[in-house]
Amino acid sequence: MSSARDIAGRYRVTSPIGRGGMGEVWNGTDLRLNRPIAIKLVSAPGPGREPDARRRFRREARITARLRHAGVPTVYDFGEDDALFLVMEPLPGDSVGKLLDEHGALPASWAAFIGAQTCAVLVAAHAAGLIHRDVKPENLMLGPDGAIRVIDFGVAASTGDEFSRITQTGQIPGTARYMAPELLRGADASHASDLYAVGCLLYELLAGERPFQSPHVLDEITRRQSEPPPPLDGVPGELADLVYTLLAKEPESRPADALSVYRRLRPWVCELTPIPGWIARDLATDPGHLYTTALAHLR
């Protein structure tokens, strides 16, 4: 693909951002409104998979558009030109996965800040009858204002019947290194399995590595189902206990819902020091955060 092209006579694709769940994400411009955009183009499907790939991409567009939440990118448009395309608000910054690669373990306040925002999105998704199924650092975008956007709802499950099932028999959607043990045993995804992934996320943010990290994915899967997570040395006891509870082997032993996890993380969000190369300013004076803080004090 060339570095610049026009889509549907309206959108100019300019420079690559990276790859999403099943497509390439690019920077671009809405030529009609003269505003920046992000545009996701579907990857070319393999032989015999074109109808399924198209249906899955349309499904991701509908799910993302349905979730009207500050922590989910706003969908502007969806359609087909030479390829299927999904036009969204641009997301400044980069993934939490890249942040971990550059900085390793983060202070407890930052881990809680990222985790609490992720849980806020899950509260909205679960209330809308959706299960993300692929919560991981690479699917969280961290902006220069500290805001987290949850992306890639391409494998989300619906607890209702509005969105058709797109997973073929025998397939396990999501990323194996962040999957709850019951999913690997063939159980259906649930709110509790999303919370297990939040536990993996928090552990990695606090320790700088996954709880059962190994070069071999099968070793990680085996240990996850049979061993307790290694201790979180140097992490405050109450916060570590929350992570251990989220990583419980059985779903019924995990917290009741994403809202209860958010409430347990919220007190740890304090004194957010700048992160070199990522967050340069005092977030306490950020205009967007001043606005949301004011709303949070409504009674």
Write a concise synopsis of the structure shown.
This protein is of the alpha+beta class and 299 residues long.
Give a verbal description of the structure.
α3 packs antiparallel against α8. About 2% of the residues have low confidence. This protein folds into two domains: 84 residues, 2-Layer Sandwich (Phosphorylase Kinase, domain 1), CATH 3.30.200.20; 203 residues, Transferase(Phosphotransferase), domain 1. The strands form three sheets. The protein has a six-stranded antiparallel sheet, covered by helices on one side. The radius of gyration is 19 Å and the shape is globular. 35% of the residues lie in helices and 17% in strands. The longest helix is centred in the middle third of the chain and has 20 residues. A hairpin with a 4-residue loop joins β3 and β4. The protein is of the alpha+beta class and 299 residues long. It has nine helices and eleven strands.
Task: Please render the helix and strand layout as text.
Blueprint: E1 5-7, E2 11-19, E3 23-30, E4 35-42, H1 50-66, E5 75-80, E6 84-88, E7 94-95, H2 96-103, H3 108-127, E8 130-131, E9 140-142, E10 148-150, E11 157-158, H4 181-184, H5 191-207, H6 217-226, H7 237-246, H8 258-265, H9 287-296
Antiparallel strand pairs: 1-2, 2-3, 3-4, 4-6, 5-6, 7-9, 8-11, 9-10
